[in-house]
Design a protein that fits this description.
This protein has about 450 residues and is α/β, with parallel strands linked by helices. The chain is built from 15 helices and 12 strands.
């Protein structure tokens, strides 16, 4: 039986490559280095990936200051980028609601709709796919369907899985980057700027907030005393196996309560609200649950928090991006495969004030990575480790570490979606709240 990616990604991409080779516009000789350029970047994967690409947008604009930059993302993440001054246009993938179609067929149809409605009439000089690993979101296909005369992406030889399922994709690019050494995804994204002849000056992530976003955070936290230490808890993750048990979060907060006067703020998707309410009951203290705010509003709340403790998720990237000290609890073993999709060496929060706690080694039969669909290797990270890291990061005067509103750019990584609907919850009275959607 053929794998789903063969029919939904590889075959359409190879057909597009054939069309481009024999019927498409031929590339110009020589790569334009300066002057008015039109650039389109396809970033179609998860929230964390989108946030980790923000340095690329800035450095592309710095290298080509007169260029027009278009970015294509999933519709859920569009609000995170529309305030970015380095992006001139943000396009969202169309939503195909035909429930009778398989998910991958809907993705393919969405890509074709985007081409027909927006791309076929537009002219681009560069089409860029920054994804280093397996392309399962049709970014290579869309690069081929644009009018771009220069198409830039990473080789199919980057990983064994990509080499097997994206075989033949190298021919789609006029500039095909080699796998390169092991490095963080932010640096892999920025390697594209260097490949185009530019220089990288800054690597920090960047998210811009509006006054309205910060007003949301001010209203939500209006009744929290200024001396209170706000501790953000990111209990969600794309897969169950990446979630630290709720009872351990509760024990960790209880033990910290002996040192500090803190208020937990739980960040979760709308679908995880039930889990958040369970944790709030276990905490037995006033708790704010943010389970559905818009992405930038969630960023504004994280900007006001002193410490974030959570799973390996988009929310953790956002926290680090907003200047919040960040502790991530990862299921990936320290002696595991460093190039794995859960490896902090690739996907850890890009911040100087972030720490990742990992099991020393995999449990049972897990070696290169954790294979269990349920919490398994992540349970080897103890409450003692998390409490010790939290105390160290908060220091002697945690409340003084609060990050106030900034009117300048904010460094950041995260987003998978928060839709609006604050519903805070408290185990003893008032409810406040919000809703965060799908983390990853």
């Amino acid at each position: 039986m053929l794998p789903p990616l063969f029919l939904s990604v590889r075959v359409p991409t190879l057909l597009a490559r054939f069309w481009r080779t024999y019927f498409g516009e031929k590339s110009k000789s020589g790569l334009p280095r300066r002057g008015r350029l039109s650039v389109i970047v396809f970033r179609l994967d998860a929230l964390g990936d989108v946030v980790m690409t923000t340095p690329l947008f800035r450095e592309l604009k710095r290298a080509f200051p007169n260029s027009h930059c278009t970015v294509v993302v999933q519709n859920a993440y569009r609000p995170l980028l529309i305030t970015n001054p380095h992006i001139d246009e943000v396009l969202a993938m169309p939503e195909v609601r035909a429930a009778y179609l398989p998910g991958r067929a809907r993705k393919l149809l969405a890509a074709m709709l985007l081409y027909w409605r927006r791309l076929r009439r537009s002219r681009y000089d560069f089409a860029i796919s920054p994804r280093w690993d397996l392309d399962e979101h049709l970014a290579t296909l869309l690069c081929l369907l644009t009018t771009a005369t220069e198409r830039v992406g990473y080789t199919e030889k980057a990983s064994p899985l990509k080499q097997r399922l994206n075989r033949g994709f190298d021919a789609a690019f006029t500039t095909c980057l080699p796998p390169g050494p092991l490095q963080h995804e932010v640096m892999r994204n920025l390697a594209i700027v260097k490949a185009l002849g530019g220089a990288v000056q800054e690597t920090c992530l960047e998210v811009r907030l509006t006054e309205r976003d910060r007003e949301f955070a001010s209203r939500l936290l209006a009744n929290v005393p200024a001396s209170t230490t706000l501790i953000a808890l990111g209990i969600g993750a794309r897969s169950t196996g990446r979630r630290w048990p709720l009872n351990r979060y509760a024990e960790r907060v209880s033990r910290l309560a002996s040192d500090i006067r803190g208020r937990p703020v739980i960040f979760c998707s709308a679908g995880e609200r039930g889990e958040a309410l369970k944790l709030a009951k276990l905490l037995s203290r006033e708790t704010i649950i943010l389970s559905g705010a818009q992405l930038r509003e969630a960023c504004a709340v994280l900007e006001r928090c002193h410490l974030f403790i959570g799973n390996d998720s988009g929310c953790a990237h956002l926290a680090a991006a907003m200047g919040c000290k960040t502790i991530v609890i990862s299921r990936h073993p320290r002696d595991g495969n460093p190039n794995h999709g859960n490896s902090p060496l690739r996907f850890g929060p890009h911040s100087r004030e972030a720490r990742v706690l990992q099991p020393a080694t995999g449990l049972d039969t897990c070696t290169a990575d954790c294979r269990s669909p349920e919490p398994h290797c992540i349970t080897a990270v103890s409450v003692d480790e998390v409490v010790a890291a939290a105390r160290e990061m908060l220091g002697n005067n945690p409340a003084s570490a609060r990050v106030g509103p900034l009117n300048m750019l904010i460094h950041a990584p995260l987003r998978r979606q928060l839709s609006m609907a604050a519903i805070a919850a408290s185990t003893r009275g008032a409810m406040v709240g919000g809703a965060l959607k799908g983390q990853g």
